[in-house]
């Protein structure tokens, strides 16, 4: 199979991987031949990339980082819990975080179990899902990325559980913001931007009153937009004043934000998202944490079409977990444009690099 941008697929392409909605229900199944109408609908649904059948890559299959059943159940539970919180806030009632925390805790435990048993680099692009609410989907993805990074950093299971809860609830304050502002395609007014930024404080105030959640969970919501040079919000704190959980979540938050399709801009590919993180390493983000993050994420997802520094072209066939920036490439075209078919492991062929890959066009912004 090949991974293609939704903006470069054409009618008559045949799906090689199902497309689901955020409740785990199949929207389009394997083998469906795409029509122009289907492609337009997938764009409207926020799908950035899909997998199509290809005769040269029939043996290439993408493994999901999180089991489909676990993902759909987690998304369903997050959506139900966040919706309950939103309704309580709309009615002016006290938010019952303690009543919902056992459910959040169960979700984190299931995701952590999946990550600890996963033997591949983390790739969320492999889960082709159409979602109705970005916040629910984003909360799950940030939890996955944060737990994978925390595990790489050697955190204990209790620490990972605490980190996972902080990651899952980092944007809970957005439940207080009108959906028309969260999904606004035009530039935000100063007042609207202030309202967006308020979610960090609102989330902190909500979570710190819990009797069942750690105060560190509340500080994850409070600090995930702070930056080590003091340029973040809401308090402009810097360096070691930012808890390392929040530094982890801040990296995961930005990476998922820029690699996800949004109403106000299209998604970057993972290697572009990583380049953005590295552009802020040492100023905005902890450099050591960014370095570790680059070692656990599939920077070049399986199925991605690439061009190599020596002129050869092909498709990412497999990721090297301990060196995801140097995947195995299924070479399909020699530098003289003659067709071929063989695998090249960039982990051993160090004189060859990836110089181009399929990208989408659009303006990129960091997380709101």
Notes on the protein architecture:
The chain is α+β, with helices and mostly antiparallel strands and 368 residues long. It has a domain at 68-294: Hypothetical protein af1432, CATH 1.10.3210.10. It has twelve helices and ten strands. The protein has helices at 36-44, 68-90, 97-117, 134-152, 157-168, 179-182, 190-197, 199-207, 215-223, 244-258, 270-279, 287-294, and strands spanning 2-5, 19-21, 26-28, 49-52, 129-130, 305-308, 313-318, 328-333, 339-345, 354-357. The strands form three sheets. The protein has a five-stranded antiparallel β-sheet with strand order 9-8-7-6-10, with no helix packed on it. Strand 2 and strand 3 form a beta hairpin. It is globular, with a radius of gyration of 21 Å.
Draw up the topology in text.
Elements: E1 2-5, E2 19-21, E3 26-28, H1 36-44, E4 49-52, H2 68-90, H3 97-117, E5 129-130, H4 134-152, H5 157-168, H6 179-182, H7 190-197, H8 199-207, H9 215-223, H10 244-258, H11 270-279, H12 287-294, E6 305-308, E7 313-318, E8 328-333, E9 339-345, E10 354-357
Parallel strand pairs: 2-5
Antiparallel strand pairs: 1-4, 2-3, 6-7, 6-10, 7-8, 8-9
Helix pairs in contact: 2-3, 2-4, 3-4, 3-5, 4-5, 4-10, 5-9, 8-9, 9-10, 10-11
């Amino acid at each position: 199979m090949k991974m293609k941008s939704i903006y470069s697929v054409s009618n008559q392409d045949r799906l090689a991987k199902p497309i689901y909605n955020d409740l785990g229900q199949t929207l389009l199944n394997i083998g469906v031949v795409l029509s122009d109408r289907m492609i337009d609908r997938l764009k409207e649904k926020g799908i950035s990339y899909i997998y199509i059948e290809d005769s040269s890559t029939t043996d290439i299959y993408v493994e999901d980082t999180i089991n489909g059943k676990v993902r759909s159940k987690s998304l369903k539970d997050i959506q139900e819990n966040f919706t309950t919180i939103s309704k309580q806030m709309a009615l002016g009632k006290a938010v019952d975080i303690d009543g919902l925390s056992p459910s959040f805790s169960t979700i984190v435990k299931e995701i952590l179990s999946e990550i600890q048993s996963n033997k591949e680099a983390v790739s969320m692009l492999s889960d082709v899902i159409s979602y109705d609410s970005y916040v629910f989907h984003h909360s799950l993805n940030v939890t996955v990325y944060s737990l994978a990074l925390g595990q790489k950093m050697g955190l204990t299971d209790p620490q990972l559980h605490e980190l996972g809860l902080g990651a899952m609830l980092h944007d809970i304050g957005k439940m207080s913001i009108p959906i028309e502002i969260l999904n606004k395609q035009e530039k935000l007014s100063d007042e609207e931007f202030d309202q967006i930024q308020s979610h960090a404080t609102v989330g902190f105030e909500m979570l710190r009153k819990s009797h069942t959640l750690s105060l560190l969970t509340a500080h994850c919501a409070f600090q995930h937009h702070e930056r080590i040079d003091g340029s973040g919000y809401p308090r402009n704190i810097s360096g070691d004043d930012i808890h390392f959980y929040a530094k982890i979540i801040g990296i995961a938050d930005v990476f998922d934000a820029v690699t996800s399709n949004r109403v106000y801009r299209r998604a970057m590919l993972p290697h572009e998202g990583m380049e953005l993180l590295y552009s802020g390493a040492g100023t905005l983000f902890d450099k050591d944490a960014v370095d570790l993050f680059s070692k656990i994420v599939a920077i070049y997802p399986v199925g991605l079409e690439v061009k190599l520094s020596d002129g050869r072209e092909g498709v990412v066939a497999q990721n090297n977990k301990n060196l995801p920036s140097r995947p195995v490439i299924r070479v399909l075209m020699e530098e003289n444009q003659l067709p071929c078919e063989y695998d090249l492991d960039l982990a051993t062929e160090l004189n060859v690099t990836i110089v181009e890959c399929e990208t989408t066009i659009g303006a990129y912004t960091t997380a709101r």
